[in-house]
Amino acid sequence: MGEVTVVGGGVGGMAAALLLARQGRRVRLYERLPRLGGKLAEHRRDGFTFSLGPSLLTMPDVFRGLGLRRDLAEPAELCRYRFADGRVLTARRDPALMAVEVDRLAPGEGASWRAFHAWAAGCLDAAGRTVFAGPLPRSPRGGRLADLRAVAPGRTLHGQARRFFRDPRLVQYVDRYATYAGSDPFRAPAALGCIPALEHGQGGWYVPGGLARLAEDLAALLDEAGVEVHLSAPVAAVEERGGRVTGLRLAGGERVPADVVVVNADAAQLYGHLLPDRRRLRRVAALGTSSSVLLLLAGVEGRTPGLTHHTVVFSRDYAREFADLFGARLPPRDPTVYIGCSAVDDPSQAPTGAENWVMLVNVPARDPERWPQSVESYRDMVLERLAERGHDLAGRLRFVDVFTPADVRDRYGCWGGAVYGGASNRVLAPFLRPGNRGPRRGLYLVGGSVHPGGGLPLVVLGARIVADLVAQDVPPGGGGR
User: Given a cut of 70, is residue 138 above it in pLDDT?
Assistant: First the structure.
C-alpha cells in the first residue's frame, strides 16, 4: 500500500503526511526538533509571547481544506505603512476603501491603485491555474499564453509598479511584496505583485492565541489520521538503490524502509547532505540565497495610542537598502522595519498594560559574525531609526531578545539562515526553483525552498501537489513508476 516516510515536521511536511495518510498509506514522520511546526514557532518570556515565524495567515480556505476549524480574527487594518517623509498609508481590506486611502496619500492615484489591483487579481487567477496547481513546465513556453501574459513575463516587480504609479511612495509600497519571498524588487518577477490581490480578496488573518496554534491543530489531525510521529529524531541520510529511494537512515544508525520519501527540508540541505547531488546543489546555489531576518522581540511597558497589529516603517532609499542586502550582502544601513504587535488584537499575548513588539529587519543570509558591526550595535541602530520615525521606545523596554540568521540556520537547517531557500531574483525564478518531484524515483520535496514557494498557504499547496504526484506515481496498493 506504499510505505511513506516524511523528513521534517514543518507545516509542509505535516500537511503532506496528513494528505498521504488519507490516501490509505502508512506514514511515518521524523522531526529533529522536540516539536512540530518548523518555522511556525514562538518565543515566550515573562508573560509575553512572540511569533518567530509567520505574522499573519492568508488563503485561510487552504487550511480549512485540511480540516482545520479554528476561529480566526481579522485585524481592522491589513497594515499601516509609514514613509520616511512621515506620511502614512492605511491599507484597508476593501479595495474601494483602499483606493480612498491611496488618494489621501497621493491625490489622483486612487484610480491607479484600482488598475493595479485589477492586474494583480488577474495575475492571481493565472497563478491559481499554474503555479499553485501543480508542477510548472520546464520553460514558460509550456504554459497557456493568456496565463503567461497575465503575470507580466520578463518584467520585474519594481518595473511593474512604475507602470501603475507615479508617486515613489506607492512604488515602494508595491516593492515591499518582494520581501514576502525574501527577494529584491528590482530583480524579482512582477508576478509577486499578485499578493495584494490575496490580501484584499481573502484577508490577512490572525489565530487567537498565536499562529503557532495552527501547528497544534495539524498535529491533532496527524494523530487522528494515524501518522506515526517521531520527535527529536534527526535523519542522517536518504538512502537509494538503482535510482530509487529505499528509505532513511536516522542519526542513531537505524534504517527505516520506505517506498516514498517526502523531504520537508531546505533543498540545499537535501542535496548537500541527506542525498548528495552536486549537480542539483549547483542549481540551488545558482539561485543565490533569499534574505534572512533579524528579529527584535521586545517586552514593551504601556500601551501605544493608535498602534496597529501590523506596521511597516519604510527606509528613505529602497534601492540602496536592497543594494546593501543583496549586493554588498550587509545589513542595510537604513533598514525598513516591520512591527508586529499581536497584543493589539489579543490581550493573551502580553501582560496587562504591556505590548509584545516583534521588530523584523531583512538582513543577508550569512553568519552575523561576518557583519561589520555586532548584533547588539545593529539592534541599537534599528531602535534609533524607529525613534526618529515616530516609534520611540525609550524608557518603555522591559527587555529585547534577539533572533538572528544564525538562529534560523541552526534551528531549521536553512542554508546561511535563508528563510525561503533560493531567492526569486530573476524574472523567470518560478521555473528555476527546485521541483516537487525529486531526481530519484519515490523522492518528493515540499516546503518553502521548493515549488511553489514559502509562506503558510504556499507550503500547504505544495503538499497537495506532492500528494497528487505520489498518487499518480505510486498508487496505493500498486508498485509505482
Answer: no
